[in-house]
């Protein structure tokens, strides 16, 4: 079992920054592909960003490219999402997810942290 706990959400104004963190349990965090997803009210959950096991490869949704940065610290079992130039349309519940047997698909999910961006 892998437990994922997200922190760092909050209420900010448009243009502000936030950094989300996701702490993972387990001894093999460095073997997981990690991702961030989000779900806005009334919408489907959507992919935001992902990072490979050692952090050499990252991928972003077009909507966040250039504003968000995903990173990881395998020594701390933590993945981060730095979000800059936030927009009201970034308002959502943000989840981190782990693909523990890549590329098998994300098989563990956190509970989410709320990000609200006011205009």
In a few lines, what is going on in this structure?
The protein has strands at 4-7, 10-13, 18-24, 33-39, 46-51, 58-60, 68-73, 78-83, 92-99, 108-109, 113-118. It is an all-beta fold and 119 residues long.
Could you explain the architecture of this structure?
- The protein is mainly beta.
- 0% of the residues lie in helices and 50% in strands.
- The chain is built from no helices and eleven strands.
- The strands form two sheets. Strands 2, 4, 5, 6, 9, 10 and 11 form a seven-stranded mixed sheet that branches. It has a four-stranded antiparallel sheet with strand order 1-3-8-7, with no helix packed on it.
- Strand 5 and strand 6 form a beta hairpin.
- The protein starts with a strand and ends with a strand.
- The model has no long low-confidence stretch (mean pLDDT 96).
